[in-house]
Design a protein that fits this description.
The complex is a heterodimer of chains A (100) and B (546).
Chain A lengths: L1 E7 L11 E5 L11 H10 L11 E2 L2 E2 L3 E5 L2 E2 L15 E6 L5
Parallel strand pairs in A: 1-7
Antiparallel strand pairs in A: 1-2, 3-4, 5-6, 5-7
Chain B lengths: L6 E2 L20 H14 L12 H19 L1 H7 L9 E6 L4 E6 L37 E5 L3 H15 L13 E5 L24 H17 L4 E5 L8 H5 L4 E4 L4 H14 L3 E7 L2 E7 L13 H4 L12 H4 L4 H20 L7 E6 L5 E5 L29 H4 L2 E2 L9 E2 L13 H5 L19 E4 L3 H4 L13 E2 L9 E2 L4 E5 L5 H11 L4 E4 L3 H8 L8
Parallel strand pairs in B: 4-5, 4-7, 5-6, 7-8, 14-17, 17-18
Antiparallel strand pairs in B: 1-3, 2-3, 8-9, 9-10, 10-11, 12-13, 15-16
Helix pairs in contact in B: 2-3, 2-10, 4-5, 4-10
The chains are: A mainly beta (100), B alpha/beta (546).
The structure holds zinc ion.
Organism (chain B): Caulochytrium protostelioides
InterPro entries (chain B): Rhodanese-like_dom, Rhodanese-like_dom_sf, ThiF/MoeB/HesA, ThiF_NAD_FAD-bd, Ubiquitin-activating_enz
Protein name (chain B): Rhodanese domain-containing protein
């Protein structure tokens, strides 16, 4: 399964300054596809995240202050961690901005 | 081109290109074509024929040009300088939502033919209705708009808001309803952020930002219109103690602030008072604009407040700011201008197309991504699912200390507003206390004298090398795990038992370093609140602050 995801709001600094990645998920089977929860764990465990995992993931989900978008919608509208990924979904992890 | 004519920067079919973020309803092509014809008839015949470029390219060029100019100077005076504008001082740029036309109205110039002035075209929400005034509130007096922050975003939105509220001096029906534009900021103009805070000038360094902003806006509005907006300076730091009383005098609030605790406070105060909140933020290459707790759309659930979206404050280490993380100068200006545009339908129609949506600009992947946000959360301690007016507890804030709520210390005087509180106060030492701690006055010592001058620990600069290169205390040095303190008792002292005082730029990283050294077994490590920024304020005014 291929998932396209983007990182912004400064989070890309944790990803070796990569803003967009297309990854194949070795998760799920023919019967069960991967969920957002598994994607977040995969990003950390597979070494896609390059440093300071605590600034990305806390308690199986993203840390406070990261907004997750699934195909241009707030992930809370899509089931959050339980959302089942589909091929070519666009996932965006975006860090809150506080500056002005 | 005839003198004083309006300039139309559109290509044929422009109105059909998709550039209008605020566009609420579709418009059928037939009606569009008819409007085209009407508008063409109205406009003067002398306008230059638009080149037959693809619309998208022209659209992009014009928008990029307008955005760049807007960022540099605020919307309107800049256009007077631009190659496309024969408009005179005081011209008004209108991004017309239904058809996405850019039109320039020279509201200062009485030579404009009467028939060519005023609002033309459909309103965004009701077909064929005239544009309601962005000046006169339903109460009959002027609207009251409050902008919190006269920094980078304020520099983008304040000129645009002032122009919008001032309107056209030749439309007398609005003359009696004088809108109010309030500005809150407790900071003074400084050189190091003028690249983004374009409302301010080098000549006003040291002046209160609110006063500098009002000077700039007064000049911008010019003699015919400066009395048509009441500009009010609130030179104060927004706190839980003063926010409700201050906001109570306004109809809408724009958040152009620069730190997380203030953003929670502004949102909570707006919810408690039932005010819509236009929120803009920017860091590095990116900016966000949305409307929190805005008017409830008839066919949608109530939009969220800031707390609905971010119920738990982010860890202080991840809080971003333009000073600490840097920002491309035009980004906050662009985002501020977008925030002013988003305020417009809120005033004219009491509706907010951006409520419930977040507009995200990323310079490096350049487009405005507009995403749907979650509805208001029923268990939100502030808005209780978008209850209006007043949320969960009308007229009251759900928190008393927003800095503590966000895990931050109250800001020390002379330091940045956003202070990390990682180590207890007992483990911090002010510059003035270095003499009793290290036996030396807080003045630079030559590095060559180390460690003799620092027989028992010393002051260490923990900033990254790129920042140390800007300027440092000559006494700063790398920290050895073991060192010879000059006492010849046959055994090297362990550095872990010596007193060390850590400094950084503003007193945040030094706290993290204190924690890190403690984990390595250091027993007497402290840091200096405010860091080198504070050093510049109390010891050496020539120290380079960045
Ligand atoms: Zn809420």
């Amino acid at each position: 399964m291929i998932v396209f995801y983007l990182i912004s709001g400064g989070l890309e600094l944790l990803f070796d300054n990569q803003k967009s990645l297309r990854i194949g998920l070795p998760l799920g089977t023919e019967q069960t596809s991967a969920t957002m929860k598994e994607l977040i764990s995969f990003i950390v465990d597979a070494g896609i995240l390059k440093e300071r995992p605590e600034l990305f993931k806390q308690n199986d989900t993203v840390r406070p202050g990261i907004l997750v978008l699934i195909n241009e919608a707030d992930w809370e509208l899509e089931g959050e961690l339980d959302y089942v990924l589909k091929p070519n979904d666009e996932i965006v992890f975006i860090s809150t901005l506080h500056g002005g | 081109m005839p003198n004083g004519a309006s300039v139309r920067v559109v290509a044929p079919g422009w109105r059909n290109t998709r550039v209008d973020a605020a566009h609420d309803a579709g418009q059928d092509a037939e009606q569009s074509a008819q409007q085209d014809a009407e508008l063409d008839a109205e406009l003067d015949a002398g306008r230059p024929a638009p080149p037959s470029w693809p619309n998208a390219i022209l659209t992009g060029l014009v928008l990029a040009h307008a955005a760049a100019l807007a960022c540099l100077k605020g919307f309107l005076p800049a256009l007077n300088d631009g190659p496309t504008a024969s408009a005179r001082p005081g011209s008004l740029l209108v991004l017309h939502p239904p058809t996405a036309q850019l039109r320039f109205w020279n509201t200062e110039n009485s030579e404009i033919p009467a028939g060519a002035k005023g609002w033309i075209g459909q309103t965004p929400f009701e077909a064929d209705a005239p544009w309601p005034s962005p000046r006169r509130s339903p109460r009959g007096d002027g609207y009251r708009v409050l902008v919190v922050g006269a920094g980078g975003i304020g520099s983008g939105c304040l000129p645009a808001m002032a122009q919008l509220l001032a309107g056209d001096p030749d439309q007398d029906e609005d003359a009696a309803a004088v809108p109010t534009l309030g500005i809150v900021d407790d900071d003074t103009v400084a050189l190091h952020n003028l690249h983004r805070q374009t409302l301010h000038t080098r000549g006003r360094i040291g002046v209160a930002k609110v006063d500098s902003a009002i000077a700039a806006l007064t000049e911008l509005l010019g003699p015919r219109r400066q009395d048509r907006v009441r500009l009010v300076a609130h030179r104060l730091r927004l706190t839980a103690a003063n926010a409700l009383a201050l906001f109570g005098g306004y109809d809408v609030v724009l958040d152009a602030s620069d730190n997380a605790p203030t953003r929670y406070l502004i949102s909570d105060a707006c919810v408690a008072l039932g005010l819509p909140l236009v929120s803009a933020s920017a860091v590095r290459w990116e900016g966000h604009v949305t409307i929190y707790h805005g008017p409830r759309p008839t066919d949608a659930p109530p939009p969220p407040c800031y707390r609905c979206l971010y119920p738990v404050p982010p860890p202080p280490a991840t809080m971003t700011s333009c000073d600490a993380d840097g920002v491309m100068g035009p980004v906050p200006g662009l985002i501020g201008a977008l925030a002013a545009l988003a305020t417009w339908p809120l005033l004219t129609h009491g509706r907010a197309p951006l409520a419930g949506q977040l507009a995200v600009w990323d310079t490096l992947a350049p487009r405005v991504r507009t995403v749907r946000l979650r509805p208001a959360a029923p268990d939100c301690p502030a808005c209780a699912g978008g209850q209006d007016p007043g949320g969960a507890a009308p007229g009251r804030l759900p928190a008393a200390d927003y800095a503590a709520f966000c895990g931050m210390a109250a800001a020390a005087e002379g330091t940045a507003s956003c202070g990390l509180a990682l180590v207890p106060p007992a483990m911090r030492v002010a510059w003035e206390q270095l003499l009793p701690r290290h036996g030396v006055a807080p003045r630079p010592l030559a590095l060559a004298t180390w460690p003799a001058a620092w027989p028992r620990g010393g002051v260490l600069d923990v900033r990254p090398p790129s920042e140390v290169a800007v300027g440092t205390l000559p006494s700063a040095a790398g920290l050895p795990m073991e060192c010879d303190d000059g006492v010849d008792d046959g055994s090297p002292r362990r550095a872990q038992t010596m007193p060390w005082t850590l400094v950084c730029r503003r007193g945040n990283d030094s706290q993290r370093a204190v924690v890190a050294l403690q984990q390595l077994g250091f027993t007497d490590v402290k840091d200096v609140p405010g860091g080198l920024t504070r050093w510049a304020a109390v010891v050496d005014p020539h120290f380079p602050i960045y």
